[in-house]
Structure formats: structure tokens, C-alpha cells
């Protein structure tokens, strides 16, 4: 059995980028080398990459939300999206307007990042976007984008897609009497 590559200061950038790392492994590396451990897996990987290339330990820049969450006040379809959060109050708003089939999804998760909130975006726009995404998801050929932080999910999707292709090939060969 091949031993799993360990995350060490001597690792090549290609190996760092091509491997799946647990967040815990990235945090341990950062602690060992005096790097900040805050942020997402993607943030940690970028920090480690910079450290491996330049030796720079840097300091992370964390964006802080200014003001109250939108859900701390009454939300209407005309409410501007300023400090969006996937919380119970926001869920109640969406269930009221969409129905019990409502679920928080990747479409809405993107708005938890301030950089994805455009000027004059309203909660009515979020409802319409969610409904469009729901129609898109109902298409059997549709594959949603899986964010970098969910790379394990992408691996599982690709793995089962490959198994299905192999299974269909074997079934076809058996049907044709070639196996």
C-alpha cells in the first residue's frame, strides 16, 4: 500500500496543489511554521503556498461585517441585501414566499460573502434567483458547480460518474455477448 504524502516544508507546489488535504492537516502545518490558522481551507492553502515560495508568513486580512444582520430586522421582498446570513429568521422569510420545499443552497450561500452582494440586490431578487436555480436543478443533465472548499464532494461526484460509465460499458458488453 502506498503511504499518504505528508504535508511538510519540503513539499513541491505541484504536490501541494494536486493533493486533497484535510483542514486539520493544513492547520497543523500552519501552527508548526508560525503561520496564521484562521480562514477557510482555500485561505490556508494559499497562505502555505506563499510561505513555501517566499518564506513570507504574512498576516491574514479578515473582512468584518459592518452593522446588524439583515435578519435582525423585518425582511420584505424589497429589503436590500446588506449583511446576509443563512439563519432561522431568513429561512422563515424564504419558506413564507417559496414554501416548504425551500432549502438553503449554494446559490444563497454565495451571498454570505460580502463581495458577492451587488448594489440594489433585494430579497425579492434572491427569491427569483432561487426559483430559477430550482428549475435548473430539476434538469437531469444539470450539474451544479461545487466550490473549491467542497473538493471532497467533487471527488465523490466524479468517482460515481466514472463507476456508472464503467458499469454501463460492462452491461453493454454483456448484452452484446462480448463478455
What does this structure look like?
By secondary structure, the chain is mostly helical. Among the domains are: 13-54; 85-148, no CATH class. It is 48% helix and 0% strand. The chain contains 7 helices and no strands. Helix 2 (23-32) packs parallel to helix 3. The longest helix is centred in the C-terminal third of the chain and has 25 residues, at 151-175. The mean pLDDT is 85.
Task: Report the end-to-end length measured between terminal Cα atoms.
Answer: 31 Å
Instruction: Report the portion of residues in β strands.
Output: under 5%
Whole-number average pLDDT?
85
Give the CA-based shape: flat
Poorly predicted segments: none
- The chain-level structural class is mainly alpha
Annotation field: number of helices: 7
- Share of helix among residues? 40-55%
Major sheet characteristics:
none
| Spatial extent as radius of gyration | 22 Å
Number of distinct beta strands: 0
Sequence of secondary-structure elements: HHHHHHH
Task: Describe the structure using short key phrases.
179 residues, 7 helices
Describe the SSE topology.
Elements: H1 13-18, H2 23-32, H3 41-54, H4 88-98, H5 106-109, H6 123-138, H7 151-175
Structure in a nutshell:
The protein is mostly helical. The chain has helices at 13-18, 23-32, 41-54, 88-98, 106-109, 123-138, 151-175.
Amino acid at each position: 500500500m502506498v503511504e499518504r504524502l505528508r504535508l511538510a516544508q519540503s513539499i513541491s507546489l505541484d504536490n501541494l496543489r494536486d493533493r486533497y488535504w484535510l483542514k486539520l492537516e493544513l492547520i497543523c502545518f500552519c501552527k508548526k511554521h508560525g503561520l496564521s490558522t484562521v480562514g477557510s481551507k482555500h485561505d490556508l492553502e494559499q497562505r502555505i503556498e506563499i510561505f513555501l515560495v517566499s518564506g513570507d508568513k504574512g498576516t491574514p486580512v479578515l473582512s468584518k461585517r459592518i452593522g446588524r444582520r439583515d435578519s435582525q430586522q423585518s425582511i420584505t421582498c424589497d429589503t436590500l441585501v446588506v449583511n446576509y446570513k443563512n439563519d432561522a429568521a431568513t429561512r422563515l422569510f424564504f419558506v413564507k414566499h417559496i414554501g416548504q420545499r425551500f432549502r438553503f443552497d449554494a446559490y444563497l450561500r454565495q451571498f454570505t460573502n460580502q463581495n458577492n452582494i451587488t448594489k440594489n440586490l433585494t430579497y425579492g431578487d434572491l427569491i427569483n434567483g432561487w426559483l430559477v436555480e430550482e428549475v435548473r436543478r430539476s434538469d437531469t443533465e444539470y450539474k451544479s458547480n461545487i466550490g473549491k472548499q467542497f473538493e471532497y464532494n467533487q471527488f465523490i461526484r466524479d468517482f460515481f460518474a466514472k463507476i456508472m460509465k464503467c458499469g454501463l460499458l460492462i452491461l453493454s458488453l454483456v448484452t452484446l455477448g462480448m463478455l
